[in-house]
């Protein structure tokens, strides 16, 4: 959506303008002018929109929902580019909207990292490390013969209400 505003600016942004978006959550977020955590991209969209269409301007921008993957030219390519961006693949700085570049160096702006995404990533890392520690344990071979899924949430759930010494004894059996 930020790129669309940039393209409208470059095209002159004359008269009525329409933007088709296949993400209903993003459309709803355009109506929230109150900045919230994680809304930095929507804040950027609103800033760019205010530059394109000032407050007392007669021009209008209509944002419409369009069903994704239904023969709309360019939608598949845009969807693929969005997926690449979500994986961390970034466009070359000369292909980014000007609002996403730093003024002095013309390099890509580093966007804030989502607290939720950091927590999820940290949880995955901890889970992987604990699994590796478990697999290197002397008891792992015996445990794995009894429960091939170990370490699992199932054991933790079964023993969560037991005192720690009791669950430790069960684990050592």
Question: How far apart, in Å, are the first and last alpha carbons?
Answer: 58 Å
Number of helices: 8
Radius of gyration: 25 Å
**How are strands sequenced across the largest beta sheet?**
1-2
* Sheet with most strands: 2 strands, parallel
Percentage of β-strand residues: 5-15%
State the secondary-structure class: mainly alpha
Low-confidence stretches: none
Give the overall shape: elongated
Mean pLDDT: 76
Query: What is the string of helix and strand elements?
Result: HEHHEHHHHH
The total of beta strands comes to 2
- DSSP helix fraction: 40-55%
Report on the architecture of this protein.
With about 170 residues, the protein is mainly alpha-helical. The protein has eight helices and two strands, in the order αβααβααααα. It has a two-stranded parallel sheet. Helix 1 (about 1-10) runs parallel beside helix 3 (about 40-50). The longest helix is centred in the last third of the chain and has 21 residues, at about 115-135.
What does the secondary structure layout of this molecule look like, with pairings?
Layout: H1 2-10, E1 17-21, H2 24-30, H3 40-52, E2 61-65, H4 75-86, H5 115-135, H6 140-146, H7 153-159, H8 164-172
Parallel strand pairs: 1-2
Helix pairs in contact: 1-3
Task: Kindly list the characteristics that best describe this protein.
173 residues; single chain; elongated; 49% helix; mainly alpha
């Amino acid at each position: 959506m930020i790129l669309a505003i940039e393209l409208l600016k470059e095209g002159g942004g004359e008269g009525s303008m329409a933007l088709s978006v296949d993400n209903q959550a993003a459309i709803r977020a355009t109506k929230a002018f109150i900045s919230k955590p994680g809304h930095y991209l929507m804040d950027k969209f609103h800033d760019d929109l205010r530059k394109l269409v000032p407050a007392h301007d007669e021009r209008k921008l209509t944002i419409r929902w369009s069903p994704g993957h239904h023969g709309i030219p360019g939608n598949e390519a845009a969807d693929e580019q969005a997926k690449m961006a979500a994986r961390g693949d970034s466009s070359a700085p000369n292909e980014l909207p000007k609002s996403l570049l730093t003024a002095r160096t013309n390099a890509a702006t580093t966007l804030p990292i989502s607290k939720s995404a950091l927590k999820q990533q940290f949880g995955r890392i901890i889970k992987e490390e604990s699994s590796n520690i478990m697999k290197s344990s002397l008891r792992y071979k015996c445990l794995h013969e009894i429960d091939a899924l170990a370490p699992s949430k199932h054991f933790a759930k079964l023993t969560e209400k037991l005192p720690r010494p009791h669950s430790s004894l069960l684990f050592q059996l």
